[in-house]
């Protein structure tokens, strides 16, 4: 299986980076072909501009968008790994979705409504946040995050959401708790794909 990981964290010493390394190692051990698109390392330009939309309407997708769209096209599975900032995606990842999951590539309008153009792919979200998970669960934030990302991004374009791991209290835990999270990442990627 060809697996695309879209990674969005600016620090190489972050827990998100440990999650990324764990996921890549586990997937490759199962024989998957893995491509990582580290948005910060790439210097991905996240702002959807008027020039972008004008070019795409004319059938001339800007090269940086076309490159990322080819990775999405080639993938059987797509995983987003990112921190929750201000109850949402980091700007660089939101911009990736805005620019790459574009109209005419990821979805379109048809006689029956929205046409999902990325069907046949599986999707996994892995998110971290500093608030304890039970607090997010109690206030409804966990369900809201799953709705806006799993349904609002993946399902909207036809990618089947297989799971969403949300890890809370990052920065406040002991080594055993972090290891348990990494074990959950390994188990999830090996059982869902």
From TrEMBL:
Q: Which InterPro entries match?
A: Flavodoxin_fold, Flavoprotein-like_sf, NAD(P)H_dehydrogenase_qn
- GO CC, alphabetical: cytosol
Any idea where the Flavodoxin-like fold domain is?
1-187
Q: Which Gene3D superfamilies would you find in this protein's record? A: 3.40.50.360
The entry's keywords = Oxidoreductase
Q: Which GO terms describe its molecular function?
A: NAD(P)H dehydrogenase (quinone) activity
Family membership = Belongs to the NAD(P)H dehydrogenase (quinone) family.
UniProt-recorded name of the protein: NAD(P)H dehydrogenase (Quinone)
Q: Which organism is it from?
A: Paenibacillus barcinonensis
């Amino acid at each position: 299986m060809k697996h695309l990981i879209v990674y969005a964290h600016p620090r190489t010493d972050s827990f998100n980076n440990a999650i990324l390394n764990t996921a890549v190692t586990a997937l490759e051990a199962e024989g998957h072909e893995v491509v990582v698109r580290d948005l910060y390392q790439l210097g991905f330009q996240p702002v959807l501009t008027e020039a972008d939309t004008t070019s795409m309407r004319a059938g001339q997708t800007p090269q940086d968008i076309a490159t990322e769209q080819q990775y999405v096209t080639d993938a059987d599975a797509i995983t987003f790994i990112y921190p929750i900032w201000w109850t949402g995606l980091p700007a660089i990842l939101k911009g990736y979705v805005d620019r790459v999951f574009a109209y005419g590539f990821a979805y379109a309008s048809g006689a029956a409504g929205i046409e999902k153009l990325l069907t046949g792919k599986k999707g996994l979200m892995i998110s971290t946040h500093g608030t304890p998970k039970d607090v997010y669960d109690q206030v409804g934030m966990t369900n809201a995050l799953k709705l806006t990302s799993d349904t609002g991004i993946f399902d909207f374009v036809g990618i089947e959401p297989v799971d969403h791991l949300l890890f809370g209290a990052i920065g406040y835990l002991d080594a055993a708790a972090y290891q348990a999270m990494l074990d959950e990442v390994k188990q999830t990627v090996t059982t869902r794909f």
